[in-house]
Amino acid sequence: MIEFRAVTKRFDDGTVAVNQLDLTVEAGIITVFVGPSGCGKTTSLRMINRMVEPTSGTILVDGQDVRAADPPRLRRGIGYVIQQAGLFPHRTVLDNVATVPLLSGWSRGRARHRAAELLELVGLPAELGRRYPAQLSGGQQQRVGVARALAADPPVLLMDEPFSAVDPVVREGLQDELLRLQDELDKTIVFVTHDIDEAVRIGEKVAVFREGGVLAQYAAPAELLARPADDFVAGFVGRDRGYRSLSFVDSGEVALDQVSTVAIGQPAGAPTAEWVLVLDEQRHPRGWLPPRSTVEGAVTEAGLTPGGSLYQAGTPLRGALDAALSSPSGLGVVVDERGGYAGVVTARQVLDLIERARPTATGAERGH
């Protein structure tokens, strides 16, 4: 657990970066600090490991005042991940990950063995350990940064906008990887971002800061979206917060419909007035044949109409609505956990389910 007790940071020019912060970060969960530029979120994070010293107030980590700890020793016991990874360019990936264990007195063999284990844990192949950071993609470098932060098995992990420099597709994959790791490791994670979508996607608790370093609201994502504390929070989480809140509404029993399907490599049959879903050998959706399509011979992927996003059954309703709205047919394709076709759903079905769920939606917890 991390406690901020009346913590203030005032710089030499008189700027107040953090103003009387009282906040308790619960152990074993992801807490996200979010807000506009200059709101004090990164300063608050960096005071935990004393990379920035508070002007007044107290910060406790597991009941111990961080000011009583030797700063280098304190930092070796707290994992730290920054934007663009901050890897040592002259060291191999394996030696980058082994850095903190070596500083903590581990033997070189033990530290490298631990580093190899962590590369596997974060989803990187073992052969990348022999490469240098410049030989990796941005997403791979960030995974190495996470592995390095976890190398000495710290109870606390600080992450300062770690995914903001990568493209949206890679960023979503890294978020998924972080959530998977947290399910396994149960670390106390403090994560800084300026992106409210990222905050509500990965955070179990979210602290919204306003300019001047003032904590505006601290709540679970569902509560934050449903009941913003004031106009500032409402404006920051955005006018589409109702759509974001669907991430916390369980799909329950979505009544699935069925459509005509055809397998790749099989004849399409006579043209119909309906959309036909095309599946591969594993029954994975590949696209659509529009109404009254005429196909000579067997169906191939060439010429199919892309199908929009897919929705995995049993996950929150935001994905179901997106699948229905992005589909050219107006039918969101639902797949099982193996990606196989399970049925279709319309936007109207999703909206009806939302209406039925409305009394309990604001109390829903985040589900990953």
Automatic annotation (TrEMBL):
Top EC class, one word: translocase
Keyword Lyase tagged: no
Keyword entries, A-Z: ATP-binding, Nucleotide-binding, Transport
EC number, as in UniProt: 7.6.2.9
Domain ABC transporter residue range list: 2-237
Secreted in keyword set: no
GO molecular function, one term: ATP binding
A Pfam family this chain is assigned to: ABC_tran
PANTHER family per UniProt: OSMOPROTECTANT IMPORT ATP-BINDING PROTEIN OSMV
Family: Belongs to the ABC transporter superfamily.
Protein name, entry field: ABC-type quaternary amine transporter
Organism field: Goodfellowiella coeruleoviolacea
